[in-house]
Amino acid sequence: MIKEFKVQYEERERKLSELQPYEVALLRRTIEICAEAKARGDHPFGCLLADAEGNILMEQGNEEVTRGGDCTSHAEALLMRKASQIYDKEAMSKLTMYNCADSCAMCTGAMYWGNLGRMVYICPESKLKEVTGDDIRNPTLNLPSAVVIACGQKPMEIVGPFPELVPDFLALHEGYWDKGS
Ligand SMILES: [Zn+2]
């Protein structure tokens, strides 16, 4: 028996003017976290967790290299692992993750299981995939987090992409990946 899974998804590009100024600052901070990860030898990805007033509760960069090749050490998965030991599911539903890029299926799964309320991201996977190619270190999926969440039983608000900040994020990735031919 063939089972088909179909989810409707229309990506809408956002303008920074749709966000509060403090939210724009938080998105810019995620790019700095990416640069910090890259500087210590990890992949240039980063995210942070903030409360409804925009106070930063936690920051996390990618640590795959730092953690000896642990493939689950994407920034968002690490953040969710730590945050879910501090904040219960009710508390987590009121928090927002600010993220340099849309999340892979693994990290989106961690947000789903942790009951994160909202995620705001800069760069769509489709744009990231253009610079990573099929590099075995980061064979980027083309599976928007919104599609993963749409298959779940509960909503999570997802806001992005924000093209105005994409060049600043992707500048950290140019020449970094072996994107093949
Ligand atoms: Zn991930």
Give a verbal description of the structure.
The chain has 181 residues and is of the alpha/beta class. 34% of the residues lie in helices and 14% in strands. The chain is built from seven helices and five strands, in the order H-E-E-H-H-E-H-E-H-H-E-H. Strands 2-1-3-4-5 form a five-stranded mixed β-sheet, sandwiched between helices. Helix 2 (75-83) packs parallel to helix 4 (105-114). The longest helix is centred in the first third of the chain and has 19 residues, at 21-39. It starts with 20 loop residues before the first helix and ends in an 11-residue tail after the last helix. The model has no long low-confidence stretch (mean pLDDT 95). It binds zinc ion (ZN). Zinc ion is lined by residues 74, 76-77, 103-104, 106-107.
Strand order of the largest sheet: 2-1-3-4-5
Distinct bound molecules? zinc ion
Radius of gyration: 16 Å
Principal-axis shape equals globular
Structural class: alpha/beta
Number of strands: 5
Number of helix segments?
7
In helices, the fraction of residues equals 25-40%
Give the end-to-end Cα distance, rounded to a whole number of Å.
Answer: 38 Å
What is the ordering of alpha helices and beta strands?
HEEHHEHEHHEH
Report the sheet-strand fraction. 5-15%
User: Kindly state the mean pLDDT as a whole number?
Assistant: 95
Q: Report on the biggest sheet.
A: 5 strands, mixed
